[in-house]
Specification:
Elements (H helix, E strand, L loop, with lengths): L19 H5 L11 E5 H4 L7 E5 L21 E4 L6 E6 L22 E8 L7 E9 L6 E6 L7 E8 L2 E2 L3 E4 L11 E6 L10 H7 L6 E4 L35 H12 L2 H9 L2 E3 L9 E3 L2 E4 L1 H11 L36 E5 L3 E5 L18 H16 L4 E8 L12 H8 L19 H13 L5 E6 L4 E5 L23 E4 L8 H14 L3 H6 L1 H26 L3 E5 L5 E7 L3 E8 L10 E9 L2 E6 L21 E2 L7
Parallel strand pairs: 11-12, 12-13, 17-18, 18-19, 19-21
Antiparallel strand pairs: 1-2, 3-4, 4-7, 5-6, 5-8, 8-9, 8-10, 9-27, 11-23, 14-15, 16-17, 20-21, 20-22, 23-24, 24-25, 25-26
Helix pairs in contact: 3-5, 4-6, 10-12
Length: about 650
């Protein structure tokens, strides 16, 4: 059986056995016979009322668009996100293969379809018999055939199952969960956290481990959810015959709306990510790569705002009202897609998701509104700062125990320390070894420590100290107590107390493959040995892993130890090539934070618990657990069924 593994998921650096069609076969997802289905055009909303229009799932011989072929027309699975107590966003995309190509900006009528009607339903059981909400929407090329509905009037604190139907096929069934209301007796929240997920450099085993859990309430993402380029680092997978990282359409910098959309398709065709999408709702805060503009020569061909619109098309991010307040508009109802923000509106995504009395999930944006001329806040912008203070006060008034803050870039300080390969690390992570403020991480909070002090003083003044911040961007595990002054007597590192004491804890989650400190050093050694051939490094991970990663280990360990000496509140620092995800378990009396590592190069069921910490309510401090045992939250019900599509025998009612 063709497993559909893309080249490079074979042993690292081994010449690939499968080409593009391998990926298109869906990465080992359930196989179904391909064929043509006659669809009533009027019933399914296609052009040409009353005529029978055939829909073919068969891919043209020269088709290259990344898609899980066995799931067509739902070739990127289904997804949910941004749950509230009474509603959740449901997402899918309809793929209609056409010999003229995959680009919806050039082929607005694949197979003659100018629009299709998509039915959906959400129920309390995996068989979708006990329906609580249903509807139908129309999609077309203008929104890249995506479907994004805000299913409302749902029961709170409930695990639900959903599916879509169109063109004679029913989608895989996804699993989601609404947030608890203030009156629900729910007192536990189980969250998987990820950041900096790189399709080329990791085979997404962490997404597989997330997808198999039964206790998840939410998956948070701190950004670089989808990268605008592969970056040329040694690859875990790559296309057969490809020898450069900067020329192929699925690796090079995106330059158009169509290419940005295609990059999401590349990611969303991955079977491990599909599994995670089907398992639990996501809450995503985009970082810089998700919004990167594109250009050809000196001409801008993709603006930041256009990249933001693609982000909203392809994710279940709930668009807030674009007025800076972070509030959500009412649901448009069951028969309309959520509108895609355009222009400046596509920049607004900071928001709060309330989780009953357990927590508020606060998603911050330190990228889009930073550095605005004339603004007091150079990190958040004054509008977002006012929103954040208001959201924190509301959280306290309504009695939420925790605040889980999704923040793209390290909130805690990182002061100067002995840095091997200083220039290379400074370039890779935006460090400034001569920064006048004494911190070497100058992006976001590190570049404006007075704003961090302002935030921490606000939290202390109002007694809002049970804060768990989950961040990204630094490509390693950075676990810190949050305090303005990390030196005695202001801060005492054994307990997190002192004259000031901590106002929360932070874990910068690692990545799925994007290089951290050890790999930055190893790459420099590799380039020096190969004459700087980044093309060779991209396809030769076996040599890289065997010779150059080990050579970089000792300076990485020295770097970690020096950083902890210079930063007493840095309770855990792992910048080795150990990539994976973070688990956060919020309980009435504590937060438990776990750092997990999964294999990077090969599909595997392995997962290793690297570290576990407890932070007690009322006494925030990353306290290491010496005899760590993996925590499991309350069972949230049956997993989503195996990913497969089925022919429609009896249509969902409209």
């Amino acid at each position: 059986m063709d497993t559909g593994r893309p080249t490079g998921s074979t042993p690292a650096g081994e010449p690939g056995r499968l080409g593009r069609r391998g990926l298109l076969r869906g990465g080992g997802l359930a196989g179904l016979a391909l064929g043509t289905v006659a669809v009533d055009a009027a019933a399914d909303g296609a052009t040409g009322a009353g005529a029978a229009r055939p829909y073919s799932r068969r891919l043209p011989a020269d088709w290259t668009y990344p898609v899980a072929e066995e799931l067509l027309p739902f070739g990127h699975g289904v997804m949910s996100g941004d749950p509230l107590a009474d509603r959740v966003v449901l997402w899918t995309r309809i793929t209609i293969p056409d010999r003229r190509g995959w680009d919806a900006t050039r082929v607005p009528d694949p197979q003659g379809f100018r629009r299709v009607t998509v039915r959906w339903r959400i129920a309390t059981d995996p068989a979708l018999r006990h329906v609580v909400r249903r509807g139908q929407v129309v999609t077309d090329a203008r929104r890249d055939w995506t479907v994004k509905v805000d299913a409302d009037r749902l029961p709170s604190a409930t695990t639900l199952y959903y599916a879509f139907e169109t063109l004679g096929w029913r989608s895989p069934i996804g699993r989601t969960r609404t947030a608890p209301s203030l009156t629900d007796p729910v007192r536990a929240l189980t969250v998987a956290h990820v950041a900096c997920t790189s399709w080329w450099h990791d085979v997404f085993n962490s997404y597989d481990r997330i997808g198999e859990r039964r206790d998840l309430d939410l998956v948070t993402h701190a950004g670089d959810h989808v990268y605008d380029n592969s970056g040329g680092h040694p690859a875990s997978r790559f296309w057969k015959g490809q020898r450069r990282w900067d020329t192929d359409i699925d690796n090079a910098d995106w330059t158009t709306v169509a290419q940005a959309r295609r990059r999401y398709a590349l990611y969303y065709a991955d079977p491990a990510l599909i599994r995670a999408h089907h398992a639990a709702p996501f809450a995503i805060m985009a970082d810089q790569h998700d919004y990167d503009p594109g250009q050809q020569g000196d001409r801008v061909t993709l603006t930041t705002e256009q990249a933001g619109s693609v982000l909203f098309e392809w994710t279940p991010i709930r668009p807030p009202v674009p007025d800076g307040t972070g509030r959500f508009p009412p649901s448009p109802g069951p028969d309309r897609n959520l509108p895609t923000p355009r222009g400046r509106a596509a920049l607004y995504s900071y928001r709060v998701l309330p989780y009953g009395r357990t927590a508020d999930v606060v998603l911050l944006d330190v990228r889009r509104f930073a550095g605005l001329e004339g603004q007091a806040s150079q990190v958040l912008g004054d509008e977002q700062w006012a929103w954040l203070e208001g959201a924190l006060l509301v959280s306290k008034r309504r009695g939420a125990t925790h605040r889980l803050v999704v923040n793209q870039v390290n909130l805690s300080q990182l002061r100067a320390f002995n840095l091997p390969f200083a220039d290379q690390l400074a370039q890779a992570f935006g460090l400034d070894l001569n920064a006048p403020q004494g911190e070497i991480y100058t992006t976001g909070w590190g570049g404006h420590p007075q704003e961090r002090t302002r935030l921490f003083r606000f939290l202390r003044q109002h007694g809002i100290v049970d804060n768990v911040v989950v961040s990204g961007d630094s490509h390693g595990y950075f676990g810190s107590d949050l305090v303005e002054d990390a030196q005695l007597p202001s801060y005492e590192p054994l307990t997190g107390g002192g004259l000031l004491g901590a106002v929360g804890v932070e874990m910068v989650g690692s990545t799925m493959g994007r290089p951290g400190g050890q790999d930055v050093i190893a790459e420099e050694l590799y380039f020096a040995a190969t004459g700087g051939s980044r093309g060779a490094a991209f396809t030769d991970a076996a040599t890289y892993d065997a010779r150059f990663r080990p050579a970089a280990l000792a300076p990485t360990v020295a770097l970690e130890e020096a950083a902890k000496v210079a930063n007493p509140n840095l309770r855990y620092f792992n910048w080795k090539a150990e990539y994976g995800h973070t688990m956060v378990h919020l309980r009435p009396d504590r937060a438990v934070i776990e750092c997990w590592q999964t294999p990077q190069r090969e599909r595997s069921e392995e997962a290793r618990l690297l570290a576990q910490f407890v932070s007690r309510v009322g006494r925030p401090h990353l306290e290491p657990v010496t005899a760590a045992q993996a925590v499991r939250g309350p069972d949230r019900g049956a997993r989503a069924p195996r990913a497969r599509v089925t022919r429609v025998r009896r249509r969902f009612p409209a």
